[in-house]
């Protein structure tokens, strides 16, 4: 028998694991597949590069803001825990419900589909097997996370090391050997029908998303009050530098017309052009491992949130969900439920729609979390012994404005999709009322 009272999460993850989770979770499919999308929306390489930088600034200000909150509340659950502490149990539940029912499974599903596309292209597998390939990818990586957390943490570190190879190769080739000089160039056909800079930034934010997931491991880090802020800030800063350099390298190596024509295959086309067929294949393997590491980070993080909610009796079947496996000391049941939800989404939707809606809905709660820093400082005061956000209050204001900008642009571009994702979140209200009633009766 498993006893959740006796089995505890292992506090055995260091800064290298936390930093690897941030970098490994963030640097995945986005930077490799969104180059053409961002260019098409902006119409020129200069504006596309600016969109990547602004997306990074929005992400960094949000990370700095959350880092102070994380230092105050170093517990498992991350965003769910922060929302509950600042706004009360209802909003904490709703933010957790949003992540475990919509955001988390949608991100895992979309990334698995993107990875399956790359694997299919690499091995010349027919597109009719794409769904099966996506499912196999999810099952294999998910199975790793059913074991002790040291295995998934090891894979997170390994995938980060491996993904350095294709990224470094792309950057170095573009900077020193690229001769297209596409910086400043534009496509007239693109400019004629686009120009939504906000949608372009939204596209970059999908690539930057995932940094907050490390906060779900607050009870598994050795010194979370110090390590969480360090991992968030250093990790996001590294990602911004990498994304800017990769984008610059792509624009120096490939013409804007080629980027426009290649679409999601832009980076694959670049590495083949730069390093030949064999070199391109080897670097493609690195990219595949990179995205697999991103999926691993998300599967490692979201079930821990579901486990935290189950432990707090917030979800149906909380006894099973809020229980750790006695042998592996991992949230096995929560992991299985998360994978099941992701598989359902994968079968009935597509990667682009899932990723866009996932980013939108999480930013609704990001706005509330960022604003929460003002509430916490007023309520609890300023503790200078812990990390404090620099340039307060400017930094959280920029984070709030950036998140609001994302929400507005998604609403005006896809009202129907926004309504669907909103309804999925609101379905959590009757679940909350039912669970609250059951808990009250049991007490």
UniProtKB/TrEMBL annotation:
Top-rank lineage group of the source organism: Bacteria
Chief location: membrane
Gene3D superfamilies attached to this UniProt entry: Amino acid/polyamine transporter I
Compartments reported by the entry: Membrane
Record bears the keyword Transmembrane: yes
Membrane-crossing segments per the record: 12-33, 45-69, 90-117, 129-147, 154-177, 197-219, 231-254, 274-295, 330-348, 354-376, 388-409, 415-434
Keywords of the record: Membrane, Transmembrane, Transmembrane helix
UniProt membrane topology term: Multi-pass membrane protein
InterPro entries: AA/rel_permease1, AminoAcid_Transporter
The protein, known as: Amino acid permease
Species assigned in the record: Periweissella beninensis
